[in-house]
Amino acid sequence: MSSSSALKFKIAIKPSYHAGVSLFLLYSFVISLAFFVTPLTTYSFIPYLLLFLVALRAAIKAYNSSEELLVSESGFIEKGEGDTYFQGQICATSFYNHCFIFLKLKKQDLHLADNGKNEYMTIYRDAVSDAHFRLLARLIRNEQK
């Protein structure tokens, strides 16, 4: 199904405040667990500072990310351009809740070596419109039937 006419919906994923905050909190939790192993001293200050800067950079990168998806009613998705381009089908193990959608996509590339691999994607509610969030949730529910 490489026909673009079957892809009816164009979903723009905007920057997400929730993505940045949740990723920063995850990194911060891991850094705080490291405090139990190695206490903060003059020698460990620089590695902890570097870990904090990595957490901040990852959170900013997650906040600023934006993408565009082409979606069909059958759950077929095309994403990206250039090196990050792929085609895939929503798997039944994808799930959603009030805050985010976690998509597991089975890749369908032109290269035979890449077929069957999975791609994972998290879409936060504040990154898409309510109509697109409901559309993706409906596609997941249809795949699970």
Task: Tell me what the structure shows.
The chain is an alpha+beta fold and 145 residues long. It contains three helices and seven strands. The protein has helices at 17-37, 45-64, 130-144, and strands at 9-13, 67-71, 76-79, 86-90, 95-96, 100-107, 118-124. Strands 1, 2, 3, 4, 5, 6 and 7 form a seven-stranded antiparallel β-sheet that branches. The longest helix has 21 residues, at 17-37. It is elongated. It starts with 8 loop residues before the first strand and ends with a helix.
Roughly how many Å apart are the termini?
21 Å
Radius of gyration: 19 Å
Helix content: 25-40%
Compute the number of helices: 3
Write out key terms for the chains shown:
2 domains; seven-stranded antiparallel β-sheet; 145 residues; single chain; 7 strands; alpha+beta; 25% strand; 3 helices
